[in-house]
From TrEMBL, chains A, B:
It comes from the Bacteria. Keywords: ATP-binding, Ligase, Nucleotide-binding, One-carbon metabolism. This is Formate--tetrahydrofolate ligase. Pfam families: FTHFS. One of its GO terms (molecular function) is ligase activity. Pathway: One-carbon metabolism; tetrahydrofolate interconversion. Belongs to the formate--tetrahydrofolate ligase family. ATP binds at residues 76-83. It catalyses: (6S)-5,6,7,8-tetrahydrofolate + formate + ATP = (6R)-10-formyltetrahydrofolate + ADP + phosphate.
Length: 574, 574
């Protein structure tokens, strides 16, 4: 969920200025526009409310909104404006006289202070107030961290007191978490000191978005369901190899209590007063990269179109959205918007490289519809992934000031060849008016018959699930499991986790497992290094490559230029 | 701020039930009753608001409330009900037709999940809703931790990138913080790993209440003032011994931005609808143990009596309240309520020992007014400390069901001998009605002429400040500085910190530095082991004994019995 501040040449400072100048609807107006009973929404500081989960049951008889997922082609490291498009489309729905509701992820605090550009949205397609969105919001991320670290403290206390469960100090897999970019915490040793402070153990911190609790919270359908998921979390193993759970540590109840308010989705709005549910933000590689199920269950009864987003590209976020999130929620998507940009398609031609934090190479701004066409193999592959799930795709061309009409036409032609609708969208610069064409295309697509289907059934053997994702989604020739991965797979099957869905942690910068391969690579095999269990969140995940779960700070962190001015206003945030 | 659930035989479960059954005033009613303009208070979830600091200036012309501090005799490890008395007195003011406002500290999350009994108040003298109070509230503690750990991350990143300031990795004194009881984090090694994750350093975590940022937040008079305090924080030294500040690390602006909402006091209420400002909770030994200055600046214009509390006994919390907090705020106290209990006075007789987490020894429930009289030396000493500052003391006898009338009479006699008003208070069992006598006594005392005075002037040399506190407040014969303490003192004087006030971190279980000495010990000297600088908070502090700044969990942490029931209600919290 990075803001692509390059879009339309609008700068980061402009985004903050636009947000500050927003004319917000009062919370009661927003609630009324959603048909939500007043007692279900609690104000929670300036411009923000939280929604009671009782809304789900109370609105069960209401007509269900068309369910629209915003996903993307394989992005450059800069991001291609997926969140911005989701927000813009929500505004576009309103602009064209339709009732749209947006459901997006909550940005992490750590990266907001690390790299310039947070979420959600940018320019004239933002969720506001953006300072609250990016700074603590209603404290959900901190609550996730508190629950996570409470479990960690109880594990070490359990060990300190003789480990009644038999948990082996050397087989504890539960680490700690904090919403900060801090590479020094990646690997640490705890329990040091002159007196006994518990076992001396090597462990470390993940950023909060990478916590299994974040994933579990996003996939819970109720507080009771969350309670069960907390209990199922596996924290390590006994010397005999038996799993030890948070329930065994007697921490699951307190963890749930710590999350009792965090499970309520946050209600905000876009610059154009479209209701925006902001909730959860799990990682998009080791976890689902989707916002919460409860937000979608509520939002789907509050308008005609519920627009949500999924992290990274369609092979990553959309695949998990379909096969993990929708499997649990029971909601069926109608339309998937695939965001494409000229710059990313040029990169997929294989002729350019883009590096995060650096400006685009000059030669990429030349008029090259041929490169766009060449790179469109990636777009075609992503559209087929959508179709494979029985969902109607719509291509959204996220326009940039450096684009040429010929390049936009090239994308439209490819979409037509694939039988998909296509719309040019200038929501970053023009807000909802710029997304009107996209809104019309999505509304049309939503009227088509669609037959949503999962990629695999619960009963499909784990290995087959993995092979299906690799071959049918990524276009691999097959899967290579390491010896360790084979063993772990066997163990999880033996322990009864074979029915779980699968989340593949691979690079998001290629359809393949190799971040340097653009387009739609063929003739490769998916290397599975490790298989891990997220029993609380409810999936098996595969490590294919190196996954960094605690970011570091750069040589000039964004935080260095963030401050208050003499009037107490924030300066330098984005 | 521990709840003395033994009071009046009311159990912890009763306190939660009483809180759940409370008939709360709507936030607008509460705001109106304080004469606060509506636009100054933002609702922040169920039963809670936050107050804009603009209130301070806007209400500057209003009459100032009588300023009442609730302090105590030297407590047993169980606590003697200071917060409960402050809350009860606030209710008593209302019960007797007076406008009271309460300003108390925010309880820590870690201990709430560690030891049964959180804050603030208990029985029929509580701040409500107590679940919100004890679980995250508006996220202020998490915001303090985020600011603290953001600075820590930027320090290690600074070192990782060649330490442009010259900061010596081995002389970094800034640690990390988390609101959890976790002994494993007391001493850790960071920066491990196969690749360079920054310098490998030995460091550790403090609980958030012990963060210098918490103390600085509580002592700030405005957001601008907080910004300056953040910049002044000393994080370590160069190889040449020069201090390096958060300003040098370029973190102070971002830290302030992270605290921008946390500096707004939280507005809650007591069970009887007395407005309660809940804000900050710094440690009572290494820091001031007082709630925030901004809460008092606001509260002092919102009623006839502003009642606040200070951690531990009068020699600890009240002394810092007078000489640190009031020095910065400019507010002058009128009355100090000294809470006394029969059980604590019996312990001060030297004939009993009380251990935290264990029931009172059976023999302490025998009728022994003689023991109460014997132990009252401690009460006399605490009353003299109040008088020394020119403030009028009132003794509040916090009644317990195991007390005898003869024992209460003994306390009243001692108070009379010291020329102090005395009132029996049954607020725990009876709410405001039980504190009516105390409210009358406080109101009378507030009409007396008082001439508040500091114990020392800014210009008084540091050594003399320390000796004055030791001899005139604690009753020591003098002070013994370790060689290290001597050196540190010289250094801080040379660096221009000689005008700062002093905070003495000693045991709270005795007037002396030895926790086993009851009553009012004489013939001893204060041993100063270390002298440290809290340049951001704005005081020098002395380490006299062992100070634990990260609690551990017991053999049966409270968290183990906390859970949600089938209806999603919290069970087992207190």
């Amino acid at each position: 969920m990075t803001t692509t501040s390059h879009e339309r040449g609008t700068t980061a400072a402009d985004s903050l200025a636009i947000s500050s100048g927003a004319d917000l609807a009062r919370l009661e107006e927003l609630t009324a526009s959603m048909g939500l009973d007043e007692d279900l929404v609690e104000p929670y500081g300036r411009g923000v409310g939280t929604v009671d989960l009782a809304a789900i049951e109370r609105m069960a008889d209401r007509p269900r909104a068309k369910y629209v997922l915003v996903t993307a082609i394989t992005p450059t490291p800069l991001g291609e404006g997926k969140t911005t498009t989701a927000v813009g489309l929500g505004q576009g729905m309103r602009h064209t006289g339709r009732r749209g509701v947006v459901a997006v992820r909550q940005p992490s605090l750590g990266p907001s202070l690390g790299i310039k550009g947070g979420g959600a949205g940018g320019g004239y397609s933002q969720v506001v107030p953006m300072d609250r969105l990016n700074l603590h919001l209603t404290g959900d991320l901190h609550a996730v961290a508190a629950a996570h670290n409470q479990l960690a403290a109880m594990i070490d206390n359990h060990l300190h007191r003789g480990s009644p469960s038999g948990l082996d100090p050397e087989q504890v897999t539960w680490r700690r978490t904090m919403d900060v970019n801090d590479r020094s915490l990646r690997q640490i040793v705890t329990g040091l000191g002159p007196t006994a402070h518990g076992p001396v153990r090597q462990t470390g911190f993940e950023i909060t978005a990478a916590s299994e609790i974040m994933a579990a919270l996003s996939l819970s359908t109720s507080l009771r369901d969350l309670r069960k998921r907390m209990g199922r979390i596996v924290v390590g193993r006994t010397r005999d190899g038996e799993p030890v759970t948070a329930e065994d540590i007697k921490a699951a109840g307190a963890m749930t209590v710590l999350l009792r308010e965090a499970i309520r989705p946050n209600l905000m709005q876009t610059l154009e007063r479209t209701p925006a549910l902001v909730h959860c933000g799990p990682f998009g590689n080791i976890a689902t990269g989707n916002s919460s199920i409860v937000a979608d269950l509520i939002g789907s009864r509050c308008g005609d179109y519920l627009i949500t987003e999924a992290g990274f590209s369609a092979d990553m976020g959309a695949e998990r959205f379909f096969n993990i999130k929708c499997r649990i929620s029971g909601l069926t998507p109608d339309v998937a918007v695939v965001v494409a940009t000229v710059r990313a398609l040029k990169v997929h031609s294989g002729r350019h490289r883009v590096v995060a934090g650096k400006p685009l190479p000059e030669e990429m701004t030349a008029e090259r519809p041929d490169e766009v066409r060449l790179g469109a193999e990636n777009l075609r592959a992503q559209l087929r992934i959508i179709r494979r799930h029985g969902v109607t795709p719509v291509v959204a061309v996220n326009a940039f000031p450096t684009d040429y009409d010929s390049e936009h036409r090239a994308i439209a032609e490819v979409a037509a060849e694939e039988g998909a609708r296509c719309a040019l969208s200038t929501h970053f610069a023009d807000g909802g008016a710029g997304a009107a064409e996209l809104a019309d295309a999505v509304a049309e697509a939503a009227e088509e018959d669609s037959e949503f289907q999962f990629l695999y059934r619960d009963e499909t053997p784990l290995r087959e699930k993995i092979e299906t994702i690799a071959t049918e989604v990524y276009g691999a020739d097959g899967v290579d499991f390491s010896a360790a991965a084979e063993r772990e797979l066997e163990r999880f099957i033996a322990e009864g986790h074979g029915r779980l869905p699968v989340c593949v942690a691979k690079t998001h910068l290629s359809l393949s497992a190799d971040p340097t391969l653009p387009g739609a690579p063929t003739g490769w095999r998916l290397p599975v290094r490790e298989v891990r269990l997220s029993a609380g969140a409810g999936f098996i995940y595969l490590i294919c490559g190196t996954m960094q779960t605690m970011p570091g700070l750069g040589s000039a962190p964004a935080a260095e230029s963030i401050d208050i001015d003499d009037d107490g206003n924030i300066v330098g945030l984005f």
